[in-house]
Amino acid sequence: MEFNNPADVHRICVERLGERAGRQFAAMARRGFRLDRPTDETPATGRCRLGGPALLEPGTPWPELDGYPLSLHAVLDTDALAPWLGDELPTRPGLLNFFYLDPDVPYEEYRKLDADAPEACRVVPADPACAVETPAPAPARSYPLAPVHAAGVTMLPDCWDLEDDDIAFDRDEHWGAPSLILDKLHDLDGNTSGSHCAFGWPDTSYAIYVTERDADGPEIHLLQLAADGDLGWGWGDAGTMYFMIPANAFAAGDFSQAVARIRCC
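Request: output the structure for the sequence above.
Response:
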């Protein structure tokens, strides 16, 4: 769920969940963005874009899996996003190119590939001072270029990405932390599962989770891509693709550990 006014987060959480659980849940808030098509009032944000050519440093090899080049789905301009993210962006990676295995080949050929392999997705940073537009080699798909406006919002985790130890709740009244959020905050669900978003928290309208955890805590959400008829991509029935990265790798600027997960009905 998302809030346009960060000041609303703590107030609403405490009002709905009580002092203890409200403070705990509000503390999980992260800054993120809705990625929308630009307008005259909301111009494109830096070099952020969906589709189009990659923005890579000269000499950077195009990522591939078993000889098949991945397809470029998006580029985030973190220099343009940094003022809103603040300390939540611990390194300055410049441009982030998001790739996923999506070759333009017959289905029988595609199904021989391991789409669940770590190499099936890649997030490649590039220095904006020297990055150049790099077209996708065949048989990778080339999607239309769509600049985006990144609207800053404050996000709370989807109820299904909560664990019972995250917030206090009455175990006689609720079967778990998700039950408390569904009961008290259901009408505030931002329902961004059909939208393109960056950073913050992933969102899904289904009873499934996206965010994995390790000793360093929940993963960091990098990018959420919904089905988009104008661009010509989609993943199953109402599917959404999420790019996630372990918290320690994000803090170190090691985007080689990013993974992509697809969730659909």
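The mean pLDDT is 93.
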